[in-house]
Design goal:
The protein is an alpha+beta fold and 422 residues long. It has helices spanning 18-26, 54-58, 83-98, 122-125, 129-144, 156-166, 179-186, 200-208, 214-219, 222-229, 232-240, 248-253, 273-294, 328-342, 373-393, 410-413, and strands at 10-15, 36-38, 51-52, 77-79, 106-110, 113-117, 148-153, 174-177, 261-271, 296-307, 315-325, 349-357, 360-361, 416-417, 420-421. The longest helix is centred in the C-terminal third of the chain and has 22 residues, at 273-294.
C-alpha cells in the first residue's frame, strides 16, 4: 500500500471507563472518584465486570475482574449493564464529533473509541492539534459529564500508541507523537504488548529472538524477521519505526472480498448434548432471519462448540450445501447434522457459534434437483413476514415451539443487546 506523503494529523478519542462512567453520571456521581462496577450479579458470583471506575482501578482492581475477586470489605455500587443506554450515549458523542469534522473523517473504532482525521480542520479553526482535542474533550465533558482521553499522531498507529501508553499519564489526558518523538520516548518502552497489534504470542516470539523493545526490533535484520513472521513482518518493522501506511481514506474505501454472517453465545450454565441441540436450532433460525433481512445467501456453513472450562478441546466443522440459500429449513438441517457429526455427546457444553460463510447477494441463489424451489421461496416469504412483525412489535412477537423448551434461550436473548440487558 503506498505511503500517504502529505503530513496528516489524527486523533483517537477514548472515553475513560465508558460504561462505568455513564452509570456514575446517571446517578449524579463523579466518575473519577466513585466506586462502581458494571456487572450482572444475577448471573453468578463469577460474572465478569464489564467496566470499573478509575477509582476502583486505583485500588489495584483489574478492569475485567470477576465479582468474587473484588475485596469483600470494599463498599461499592454494582450497576447492571444497560447496553441500549451506552449505545445512545455513544451516538451523542458521535454527534459532538460531527459538530467539528465531517463523517468522512471519522472512523468509529469501538463503542467508546473513534479516530478523527483533523488535518483539514486545524487551519479552519485556527487551533493547534492539542487545543482542538481539548475543545472536543471539553464539549464531551460539559454536555455528557464524561471524561475523555486523546492520542494525537501523524499517522493512525502513532495516535493509537499515544492514547494507549502516554495519554493516561498526561495531566490533561492528551498525548502527541510523531515518528521522531516516538523513537525518542518509546523505543525503550516495555512490555511490547503495550503496543497496538502486538499480542502475547507475538511478543513471546520476539522475546525468543532477543527483542524486548521497539528499538530492538528496529535494528534487527529485516530478512530474519520476514523469515520468522512472513508478511506480518512488514507491519512489525514499520511500527517499530513509527510508520503506518494506512490512512482514513483507505479505511473508508476498504471492501472485504469475502463476507460472512455469524451468531454465537456463551451459555449461562453447562448444557447437555440433548439440551444444546435446541440452542443450535434457535440460532440457525436467528441466522436465517438475519440473512433474509440482509438479502444474502450462502452454500457453506460452519459450527463451533466450546465445552465447560478445561474439560475438552473445542470441536466443530463446516459443510458445503447443495444449494445457495437462506432458507431456515435447509440451514437448520445442515447445522443439526453438523452438530450430531462433530459434537462430543458426554462433555458439558458452554459455547455455540454458527456461521454462514462467503455470503452472496440473493440474486446468486442457486437451486438443485433435490430441493423444491417453491418450498424455498415460501420459506423466504414466511421469514420476511416474521422479520417485519418483529421489527414492528419486538423480537419476541413471534416465537417457535422450541423457544418454549426449558433449555431454550431465544426469549431471553431477544431482550438483550450483545448478550446483556438493554
Amino acid at each position: 500500500m503506498p505511503m500517504d506523503r502529505e503530513q496528516r494529523t489524527y486523533f483517537i478519542i477514548d472515553l475513560k471507563s465508558f460504561y462505568a462512567s455513564v452509570e456514575c453520571v446517571d446517578r449524579g456521581l463523579d466518575p473519577m472518584t466513585a466506586l462502581l462496577v458494571v456487572a450482572d450479579k444475577e448471573r453468578s458470583k463469577g460474572t465478569i465486570c464489564l467496566a470499573i471506575t478509575p477509582a476502583m482501578k486505583a485500588l489495584g482492581i483489574k478492569n475485567r475482574c470477576r465479582i468474587y475477586e473484588i475485596p469483600k470489605n470494599l463498599e461499592y455500587i454494582v450497576a447492571p449493564p444497560r447496553m441500549q443506554r451506552y449505545i445512545d450515549v455513544s451516538a451523542d458523542i458521535y454527534g459532538i464529533y460531527l459538530s467539528y469534522v465531517a463523517k468522512e473523517d471519522i472512523h468509529v473504532y469501538s463503542i467508546d473509541e473513534s479516530f478523527l482525521d483533523v488535518t483539514a480542520y486545524l487551519e479552519l479553526y485556527g487551533l493547534s492539534p492539542h487545543d482542538l482535542a481539548l475543545s472536543i474533550m471539553n464539549d464531551i465533558r460539559e454536555q455528557l459529564g464524561l471524561r475523555a482521553t486523546c492520542g494525537i499522531g501523524t499517522n493512525l498507529y502513532l495516535a493509537k500508541v499515544a492514547l494507549d501508553i502516554l495519554a493516561k499519564h498526561s495531566p490533561d489526558f492528551i498525548a502527541e507523537l510523531n515518528e521522531e518523538s516516538y523513537r525518542q520516548r518509546l523505543w525503550t518502552h516495555r512490555p511490547l504488548t503495550d503496543f497496538w497489534r502486538i499480542g502475547p504470542g507475538t511478543a513471546r516470539r520476539l522475546n525468543a529472538l532477543g527483542m524486548y523493545t521497539q528499538g530492538d526490533i528496529a535494528v534487527y535484520p529485516e530478512n530474519l524477521l520476514y523469515k520468522q513472521f512472513g508478511v506480518l513482518a512488514e507491519y512489525i518493522i514499520d511500527h517499530a519505526w513509527g510508520r503506518e501506511s494506512c490512512t482514513m481514506k483507505d479505511i473508508k474505501n476498504y471492501r472485504t472480498r469475502s463476507k460472512s454472517l455469524s451468531c454465537g453465545q456463551v451459555l449461562m450454565r453447562d448444557y447437555s448434548f440433548d439440551e444444546a441441540v435446541i440452542i443450535v436450532k434457535e440460532m440457525a433460525d436467528e441466522l436465517s432471519l438475519d440473512m433474509v433481512a440482509a438479502h444474502v445467501v450462502s452454500n457453506n456453513v460452519s459450527l463451533y462448540i466450546g465445552y465447560s472450562a478445561g474439560t475438552y478441546p473445542s470441536t466443530g466443522g463446516n459443510m458445503t450445501l447443495q444449494v445457495t440459500t437462506n432458507s431456515y429449513r435447509i440451514l437448520m438441517d445442515a447445522y443439526v447434522r453438523l452438530y450430531y457429526k462433530t459434537t462430543n455427546r458426554i462433555v458439558p457444553i458452554r459455547r455455540v457459534i454458527l456461521s454462514a460463510n462467503s455470503v452472496l447477494d440473493e440474486c446468486f441463489e442457486q437451486y438443485s434437483f433435490f430441493v423444491d424451489p417453491e418450498v424455498m421461496e415460501k420459506d423466504r416469504k414466511v421469514t420476511r413476514s416474521v422479520n417485519r412483525i418483529k421489527s414492528r412489535y419486538g423480537k419476541n412477537a413471534v416465537l417457535k415451539g422450541m423457544d418454549l423448551y426449558e433449555a431454550g434461550n431465544s426469549i431471553a436473548r431477544n431482550a438483550q443487546i450483545g448478550g446483556h440487558k438493554k
